[in-house]
Amino acid sequence: MNIVADENLALTEYFFADFGPIHHMAGRHLGHADIQDAEVLLVRSVTQVNAALLENSQLKFVGSATIGTDHLDQTALAQQQIAWSNAPGCNAQAVAEYVITAILSVHPTALAQKDFCLGIVGLGNVGTRLAKLALRLGWKVLAYDPHVQLADVEQVELNQLLSTADAVSLHVPLIKVGDYPTQHLINTAALALLKPQAILINSSRGPVVEEAALIADIQQTGRAVVLDVFEHEPQISAQLLNLLRLATPHIAGYSLEGKARGTQMIYEAFCQSIAVPANKKIEDQLPTATPYFTAEQSLEQVLEQHLVEIYDIARDDAQLRACLKDGVVDQAAFDRLRKDYPLRREWSAHGGANV
Questions:
Q1: 250 belongs to the catalytic site
Q2: Active-site residue 233, yes or no?
Q3: Residue 127: what pLDDT?
Q4: Which residue blocks in the chain are alpha helix, DSSP H?
């Protein structure tokens, strides 16, 4: 069978080559003509899998190696009887580690502040793992999620979280309608509740934060803001970029383990859809990494000594800023950063088995 796959997926050949030829393409620009002869489509969040793309196709399966599903038109998939799967939680650990790295890069003394308070908006796979890491560091954790209750995490109303936390990290899907919409969840009113020195981090979906309100807030307060996603992505203005403390090109989840795990999850779903055994695992493909985490040192000590070696977030920030051209980030350069990104390793690969 013919397979079309986003060129940025990891280990596609390893997991899918046995089923047929794989045609690798740029996911953001993938169109109707590109999938006419395909029976399997493997994507990420940059591909809008909608009725226009799927119309009169031969597709039998769509796999998205991502946590989110807002780019998948589930109604259109059902109407055409196309099986589909996403990969919830595949890169949750990578994103949680990204957030801790961002906080420590902006506020290095946070490790020594046992009264440091992290507010987590959304307790899905990422938020839950982030809460676990923050508690391991001895921080106070507040969380808001109207859909989830966790016994080990103190949960409060959103306004209380925003007004109390020293850092606020967003981990919600993009929801435009309903009782709990998240589009522009962080707007002028929400930003006004934050302490001026509070750090804001968004690695969920760009439109969760209202860009115009954020620009005005930073200009007024000088707030430290870290963005991995942007409301008008990949259109990122120099005005916004120059106000951010750290900016990265939508790579918070780009660990080798996370990307490989995402491909494995859609491989397993595909195998189930055609009733064949799934007998391949990512562990067979992952190289060894430098063992920074040891039994002799605490998590805090390792992060104090080796954070930059584990993940140099400043390098990602600098590379994104280098893509500015005529007052805006060049879209082709932005996509190249993501395509050629040197996948970092999760802490577990460095010996952090319990993190």
A1: yes
A2: yes
A3: 97
A4: 12-16, 51-54, 74-79, 92-106, 125-136, 158-164, 188-193, 211-221, 238-241, 256-273, 299-310, 313-321, 331-339
